[in-house]
Automatic annotation (TrEMBL):
Residues 116-311 form the ATP-grasp domain. PANTHER family: ATP-GRASP ENZYME FSQD, FUMIPYRROLE BIOSYNTHESIS PROTEIN C. It comes from the Bacteria. The keyword Nucleotide-binding applies. This is ATP-grasp domain-containing protein. Keywords: ATP-binding, Ligase, Nucleotide-binding.
Length: 421
């Protein structure tokens, strides 16, 4: 069983190739979060078919001999954890409280309790607010990061430097419905010291063993409003510094959070003076179709590895001893299109024309001609415009190709020039 939104949509075709039947389960949380706009064809509805009852889904799984449950997206992790723990014979994570794997407040508490180096984090409960004096103490020495305890796509994650900004950022989280329609707490977290580089580790865990199937690095900037704007993600070779340090740390984090099975997606800050610190973790696969791009570059991904494991578990197909690692024979990156200010899409860039540029492997344009788009404030804002997947033979060539594609997108989007290439 899988919730088929975001990268969760990739599982059914891969498992069908292995002869494994798949039950799709839509949730209202995914629709509220914008991960789907309509019912998935062939999917059951958590609310419509099971009245929102996890126990009814559990009984259905038992009756239909479900042997494995996948959290396809952030919206489905809590339900997935419940089904895994209570479904006989289903691989599951550590028993007991599953919140360290889907609620960031409990996530960072678990790291601290296990002695894994982490960023100092304070929770402000729902419906509460900070007064100016308390806020001033938080930002007295350095800016801080404010984020919701539950969410996705960097939505409502902000860096603030003044007490007024902090009070406003906390209030915007604790007094309004969150990304999935629930009510998250606000987390006030120390800012990782400069220089800051954010790394992403894609893992698959089985039987308590953690395998790394990809390491990548974000290029991002802070907007004038304090929002984190993601510009690019590029892959690292497994022997490229500091991949080894990041992977060792990721393994310690997974153990501390009680992860024993499933795909995982972790974001880690690193510089040599401070060392690695986790800033976010999702007990599910990397979103935005990233695993397919990883597969294109490396020949594997954590989704492909998980499907291989499911086929091994349920159909007794062989599990490759070398499938739990990766190599990087070519350089690659994904650029996220973004805007510094509200802008109208004067002319929609054409995928085929951008793909004619050197090294461009894939382009997704979500922008609509004539529509107004806000200044980019989150990764989801960027995805509403589009992205491009680019490869090259070396780093310099990759940088040049990324700059060219971004410039051409911008020129067409703003109506300055029709595909100058």
């Amino acid at each position: 069983m899988v919730d088929p939104v975001s990268s969760g949509a990739l599982y059914a075709p891969l498992l069908a190739d292995a002869g494994i039947p798949v039950i799709l389960l839509d949730t209202e949380r995914a629709r509220i979060g914008g991960l789907r706009t309509e019912a998935t064809p062939g999917a059951l509805s958590f609310e419509g078919d099971f009245d929102g009852s996890a126990d009814r889904v559990l009984a259905y799984c038992r009756d239909n001999a479900v042997g494995y449950v996948v959290a396809g997206s952030e919206s489905g992790i809590g339900l997935c954890e419940y089904l895994r723990e209570h479904l006989p014979g289903c691989p599951a994570n550590s028993p007991g409280d599953s919140r360290p794997r889907w609620d960031k407040e409990f996530m960072f508490s678990a790291l601290s309790a296990s002695g894994v180096p982490s960023l100092e984090t304070v929770a402000i409960p729902v419906a509460e607010s900070l007064n100016t004096d308390d806020a001033a103490r938080f930002v007295a020495d350095a800016p801080v990061v404010v984020k919701p305890s539950m969410g996705a796509g960097s939505v409502d994650v902000r860096m603030v430097s003044t007490s007024a900004e902090l009070v406003d950022a906390v209030r915007s989280i604790t007094t309004a419905p969150g990304f999935f329609g629930d009510r998250p707490n606000a987390l006030v977290q120390e800012l990782y010291p400069h220089p800051q580089t954010e790394y992403v580790v894609d893992t698959f865990s089985h039987d308590g063993v953690h395998e790394v199937l990809g390491v990548s690095c974000y290029d991002k900037r802070v907007s004038a409003n304090g929002d984190f704007v993601y510009e690019r993600i590029k892959w690292l070779a497994p022997d490229e510094a500091p991949a080894g340090i990041i992977c060792d740390y990721a393994t310690a984090v997974l153990d501390a959070l009680g992860v024993r099975v499933g795909a995982g997606h972790m974001e880690v800050m690193y510089n040599p003076d401070v060392g690695p610190r986790m800033i976010d973790f999702g007990a599910r696969a990397h979103g935005a179709g990233q695993p397919l791009k990883t597969f294109k570059l490396t020949g594997t991904s954590h989704i492909h590895r998980e499907c291989e494991y499911i086929a091994h578990l349920l159909a007794e197909q062989p599990l490759s001893a070398s499938g739990g690692s990766y190599s990087l024979p070519q350089w690659g990156a994904v650029i996220f299109f973004n805007l510094d200010e509200p802008t109208q899409c004067r002319d929609r860039p054409v995928e085929e024309e951008l793909m004619a540029l050197p090294g461009v492997l894939d382009v997704t344009i979500n922008a609509t001609q004539g529509a107004e788009y806000p200044a980019t404030r989150s990764l989801l804002d960027a995805l509403s415009l589009g992205l491009a997947f680019i490869s090259a033979d070396n780093k310099r060539e990759l940088d040049e190709r990324c700059l060219r594609v971004r410039a051409e997108f911008d020129a067409v989007f703003r109506g300055k020039q029709r595909h100058p290439a």
